[in-house]
C-alpha cells in the first residue's frame, strides 16, 4: 500500500494464509511466515529467498510469531512451545523449548528478546540465555500480548481485558495496572461480550506511547 496515496500498489499471492510479516529495513524486503515456511520478497514482490522450517527444529508446532533483528537481519520464530532463531541467510542459530505456550515476543534495542508465555515473562540474551524471568500469575490472567517500549524503558503486557506496565530495568517492582476503557466489574464483567477484549498492542517507537 502506498502511504502517500493510500492505494494498493502491489499484490503478492501466497499459497496459504500468512501468520506474520516482518520488514527488513536494510533492503526493504519483507519476510512472510506461511505455515512452516519463511519467504522473503523484494520491494517488487519477487521471491528472493525461502526457508523450510520443518527440518529446523523438532516440535515446531503452529509457528505464528515472527520478529526480525534489524541489526543483523536474524529472525526469531515462535511456535507453540519452541523458539527458533535463524540467521539472515536462514541458517539455524538455536532452537529453544518452552515449558509453557509462547504468546508473544518483542525485540529490545540492545538486541535482547522479551518472550511472553502463558505464565511468565522471560528476558533472553541474543544467544538465547535467560537473563530474567518473572512469574505473571499474581498480576494478570491469561497474558496474550506484549510490546516493548525501548525509548521509555517500559514493557506493556495485556490479557483479554487487563493491561499492565513494567519497567524494563526494574522487574523487581510490582507491575502497574493500567485502566482499560469500558472495563466493567462484578456481574456486568461476567456478562460482558467477548468482542470487547483486547485484540492487540502497539507502541509508537518515536513517542513511546
Strand content: 35-45%
Helix/strand-derived category reads: mainly beta
Question: The biggest beta sheet, please?
Answer: 4 strands, antiparallel
Strand line-up of the largest beta sheet: 1-2-3-4
Order of helix and strand elements from N to C terminus: EEEEEEEEEEEEEEEEH
Number of helices: 1
Structure description:
The protein is built from 1 helix and 16 strands. The mean pLDDT is 90. The two termini are 24 Å apart. By secondary structure, it is mainly beta. Strand 6 and strand 7 form a beta hairpin.
Topology:
Layout: E1 18-24, E2 29-34, E3 37-41, E4 47-52, E5 65-68, E6 75-78, E7 82-86, E8 92-97, E9 102-107, E10 113-117, E11 120-124, E12 130-135, E13 145-149, E14 154-158, E15 163-167, E16 176-177, H1 186-191
Antiparallel strand pairs: 1-2, 2-3, 3-4, 5-6, 6-7, 7-8, 9-10, 10-11, 11-12, 13-14, 14-15, 15-16
In short:
The protein has 209 residues and is mostly beta strands. 3% of the residues lie in helices and 39% in strands.
Task: Jot down its keywords.
209 residues, mainly beta, 4-stranded antiparallel β-sheet, 1 helix, 16 strands, globular
Amino acid at each position: 500500500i502506498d502511504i502517500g496515496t493510500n492505494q494498493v500498489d502491489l499484490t503478492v499471492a501466497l499459497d496459504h494464509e500468512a501468520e506474520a510479516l516482518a520488514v527488513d529495513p536494510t533492503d526493504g524486503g519483507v519476510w512472510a511466515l506461511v505455515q512452516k515456511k519463511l519467504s522473503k520478497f523484494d520491494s517488487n514482490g519477487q521471491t528472493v529467498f525461502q526457508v523450510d522450517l520443518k527440518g529446523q527444529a523438532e516440535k515446531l508446532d503452529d509457528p505464528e510469531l515472527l520478529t526480525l533483528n534489524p541489526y543483523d537481519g536474524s529472525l526469531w520464530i515462535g511456535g507453540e512451545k519452541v523458539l527458533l532463531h535463524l540467521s539472515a541467510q536462514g541458517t539455524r542459530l538455536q532452537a529453544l523449548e518452552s515449558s509453557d505456550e509462547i504468546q508473544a515476543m518483542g525485540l529490545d534495542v540492545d538486541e535482547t528478546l522479551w518472550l511472553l508465555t502463558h505464565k511468565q515473562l522471560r528476558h533472553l540474551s541474543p544467544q538465547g540465555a535467560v537473563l530474567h524471568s518473572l512469574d505473571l500469575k499474581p498480576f494478570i490472567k491469561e497474558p496474550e500480548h506484549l510490546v516493548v517500549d525501548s525509548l521509555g524503558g517500559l514493557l506493556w503486557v495485556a490479557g483479554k481485558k487487563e493491561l499492565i506496565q513494567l519497567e524494563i530495568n526494574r522487574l523487581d517492582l510490582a507491575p502497574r495496572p493500567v485502566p482499560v476503557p469500558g472495563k466493567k466489574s462484578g456481574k456486568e464483567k461476567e456478562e460482558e461480550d467477548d468482542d470487547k477484549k483486547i485484540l492487540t498492542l502497539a507502541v509508537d517507537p518515536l513517542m513511546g506511547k
